[in-house]
Amino acid sequence: MKKLAFIIITIAFWQVAPAQQLPIYSQYLYNKFLINPAHAGSDGYTSVNLTAREQWIGYSGAPRTYSLSWQTRFLKKPYEVKQKSSSRTRYRPKTDGRVGLGAYIFSDRNGLIQRTGFQASYAYHMWIQNNTQVSLGIAATGYHFIINADQGSFEDPSEPWLTDNLRRGVFVPDADFGIYLLNPRFDFGFSAQQLFGAAAKIGNYAYRNFHMNRHFYTFGSYYLPIASKQELEPSVLVKMSEELRPQADLGLTYIYDQSLWTGLTYRTGGGIIANIRLKYVPKHTTKTAMFFGYAVDFTLNQIQRVTYGTHELTLAIKFGDSSRKYRWLDRY
């Protein structure tokens, strides 16, 4: 019966804290595709990103998330290079290569509830003026939703949970939508996830109205040159759902030579996030770069006393020929 109570508490927690219905990421600035399908292929590179996140280490049943994503852009020809009378090189975008594709698989576990699924995204990129790109994206998602409870979890052999579909697992389809604006000095995005609000029917009548809330993300960042090869990047991410008030991440990142990123973020509701990211370019190649990232979250409430914090690791590889992109896109 203890585990039965834990299941009910976990589900109640999902209903009261819908922000945790979806995975939370601390390094989303370095892979915005995880929260916005319109980002797929926006930078012109082909990239692969691996993320592993352990939340509230030391606390039994704490959320645990793993994801592997891929994105690319179909570029038919290089961007044209125009030499102006001022001797400044100008990169002019062509109409070719407007389509981006992306996909990722993930495993997200929160207590006894586990979701394992995928997303396939399509993005269309359009140029406005000479330096600004607007992208629209849509994604089809699906995941296997299951409650990990075994026969020994219940004293009553007739307990309805033993025959409930969620113990055996159900497949839940859904869809996401996003808009993304990219400029040499700033970017801005909005996305809506779980548009169908997929409902899952649970054995006990009291929980038949359980559903996945629609989630909305609005983010933006701005680049401020402060010295040679040095920049500051203030950023904001606002997350909200249909039921709870918004939560915001307010961050500031220091960038050196587009090879080192380090920053701090304050998350409303009580959290401080510190992160660092390094770029490595293997010898004998200028078309492939590797990125290593680490973030640690400190929760400013009582749960921090019984945990070792939240830790997130990322590994990314980007493939691409810089002559096929704007020079300023190398920042991504």
CATH class membership: Mainly Beta
Overall shape: it is globular
Give the total of beta strands: 17
From the N-terminal CA to the C-terminal CA, the straight-line distance is 51 Å
The biggest beta sheet is recorded as:
14 strands, antiparallel, barrel
In the sheet with the most strands, the strands line up as 1-2-5-6-7-8-9-10-12-13-14-15-16-17
Annotated CATH homologous superfamily: monomeric porin ompg
Order of helices and strands: HEEEEEEEHEEEEEEEEEE
> What is the CATH topology descriptor?
Porin
The total count of helices amounts to 2
Average pLDDT works out at 77
Please indicate the percent range of residues in DSSP E strands (runs of 2 or more).
Answer: over 45%
Give the % helix: under 10%
Using only CA atoms, what is the Rg? 22 Å
Q: What count of domains describes the coordinates? A: 1
Task: Describe this protein's structure.
This protein is mainly beta and 332 residues long. It has a single domain (2-331), classed as monomeric porin ompg (Porin, Beta Barrel), CATH 2.40.160.40. It is built from two helices and 17 strands. The protein has helices at 2-16, 165-168; strands at residues 46-54, 64-73, 80-83, 89-92, 99-110, 113-128, 132-147, 170-182, 186-193, 215-222, 224-227, 230-241, 247-256, 260-267, 271-280, 288-299, 310-319. It has a 14-stranded antiparallel β-barrel. A two-stranded antiparallel ribbon has the order 3-4. It is globular. The model is unreliable at 1-19, 79-91, 201-207 and 326-332 (pLDDT under 50).
